[in-house]
Amino acid sequence: MKKSALTLMSLLVFLCTLAVAKKQMNQRLYDINHGRETVMSEVISALKQNRIILVGEHHSNKIHHAAQVDVIRALRESGVKVAIGLEMFRSDSQQALNHWVEGNISASDFQEIYYDNWNYPWSAYQLIFDYAKEQKIPLIGLNVPREITRQVSRRGFKSLDADQKGKLSNITCRVDKEYMEYIKRAFGGHAHGKLNFTYFCEAQLVWDNVMAINALAYLKENPAAVVVILTGTGHAQKNAIPRQIRSRSKVAHAVILPEVKGLIDPETVDKTDADYIMLDL
User: What is the pTM of this model?
Assistant: First the structure.
């Protein structure tokens, strides 16, 4: 290839990289605590002071996942040692996550493990996993084995034995009004008339508790890291996983939710729910 062609190709790659960086740093946000619109470049200094950052999603929305990658990329490029905590992987699949980041597992084998953990299409999440592998960003399986939540949803938390409970203390369906409304909506979408609501509520709280416990455990072993937790908007909002973090630690944390008109926007969400809303998603 001629030198001029190589130079042109290098220039195009540079311009594409610059465009991506500009987009992520200009991601429009609504700063709930200050009641104003802003952009990522203006809040990154404050954001990186947190040890845990929860970035919510609607699981099947690829735009939400692209925005999550933008947050991770902005933090990493600002000098933060980022790790990614995943609702969609159980902690007992951690070895597979390590192998993926290290490049020691094939895409087909990893996808098989992914589908053993999660029901949503791989294509919705591929951008996240590819970026983590490319940049060697640690991935953390935060969730509990599915047999635990299945048992709790059918027979209640008290049905678990000591080994199954592990580090979990007693869990009862006691939450504030707003989070209870979320759980009721989730119950309506999952129950199909077969589940006991109280047990379903306890299963949701098991997820919140376990993800908080596992994220804090990672930080204890990796004190220089910042964990970005990717999870559904219901679990990300402040009365869910963050509430469990606050009950166990004084670790600084922040919540970023994606804009969903009529559900998550500056008119419907306040500082008791989140810190930032990603706009125009």
Answer: 0.87
